[in-house]
Amino acid sequence: MKSSLTIIITAAALLAPLAHAQESKQMMVDQLIAKNTEAKGGAEALHALQSLKLTGKMLVNEGKMEFAFAQTKKRPSAVRNEYTLQGMTIVQAYDGTEGWKISPFQGRKDPEKMSADDLKSLIEDAEVDGPLIDWKEKGSTVDYLGTEDVDGTQAHKLKVTRKNGDVNYVYLDPEHFLEIRILSQRLEHGAQVEIETDLSDYEKINGVFVPFSIESGNKGAADKQKIILDKAEGNVPLDETPFKFPTPASK
Q1: Which alpha helices (DSSP H) does the chain contain, by range?
Q2: Contacts of 35 (CB under 8 A, 6+ apart)
Q3: What local confidence, expressed as pLDDT, does residue 18 receive?
Q4: Helix residue ranges, H only, 163-206
Q5: Regions in the chain scoring below 70 on pLDDT
Q6: Is the N or the C terminus of the chain less surrounded, counting Cβ atoms within 10 Å?
Q7: Torsion angle of C-alpha atoms 37, 39, 42, 43, degrees rounded to 10
Q8: Whole-angstrom Cα distance, residue 81 to residue 92?
Q9: CA separation (Å) from 17 to 30, 104, 158?
Q10: What pLDDT is recorded for position 107?
Q11: Which residues lie closer than 8 Å to 179 by C-beta, 6 or more apart?
Q12: CA of 159: how far to CAs of 108, 135, 209, 215, 251, in Å?
């Protein structure tokens, strides 16, 4: 009996520091997300922002090619992206249920349904306020991984595991607690994809801070696409039509 009791006491003593460490990490998660929420404008302002319309330009091929860029988001999970060059417009849209695209530069001028894998990045784009806000309601889990250098800044690193298994590593500036980098890892068509997105030049729109510079591409790639916003509008009245798969015109 004494031997069994000794084993139990020893096990409890060994597990106690581990439990304390896990509790401390969860406290850091809660504190950092609370600070991030406040830094963005506060929960009330975030939830009041029901739609967002962004316009600007997208630079690719080391800035040698410039597309006109437009993005519209509407809660709970609708988004439409447009990229225009030489009179032709690429469209990617998601209505919360299904996604579709128009790819004129590939010779496809009619709308096409998107596969579940192709939709993953678009579903993340549809989030008005990023992966951290309301993470529990989204079915995600969040872990604190300490700090990591991001271009000379020791940023707080949070791991967001979504309910579909995809992962976002979110890096928060230690002074302002806004996102400065998001590394997305997801499985697409059987291959692991890593997309690194740097966020900066935040401006306040309807009480919420929105990044006006968004640079993204494959992790480690030298040439990334860069979106520079000229204008952002909040709570623009929108119906569901721009996000829905177009209905064929009756003949």
Answers
A1: 2-40, 43-48, 116-125
A2: 172, 177
A3: 47
A4: none
A5: 1-24, 248-251
A6: C
A7: -10
A8: 5
A9: 20, 59, 22
A10: 87
A11: 36, 130, 132, 170, 171, 172, 173, 199, 211
A12: 38, 11, 22, 20, 51
Two tokens, residue 13: 């003593």
- pTM higher than the cut 0.90: no
Length of the chain equals 251
CA distance 242 to 68: 18
- The residues facing 43 across adjacent strands are none
- Give one DSSP letter per residue of 122-165, joined into a string: HHHHT-SSTTTTTTTTTT-EEEEEEEEEETTEEEEEEEEE-TTS
- Listed in sequence order, the residues at least 6 apart from 100 whose beta carbon sits closer than 8 Å to its beta carbon are 91, 92, 93, 94, 111, 112, 113, 114, 245, 246
CATH of domain 3-243: 2.50.20.10
- Both tokens of 205, joined, read 């729109």
And the tokens for 168? 């976002």
Where in the chain are the domains? Answer: 3-243
> How far apart are the C-alpha atoms of 180 and 158, rounded to whole Å?
12
Phi, psi of 198 (to 5 degrees): -105, 135
Residue found under tokens 């549809």: 126
Q: Whole-angstrom Cα distance, residue 168 to residue 135?
A: 12
> Which two tokens mark 84?
């225009």
Cβ atoms < 10 Å from Cβ of 127: 17
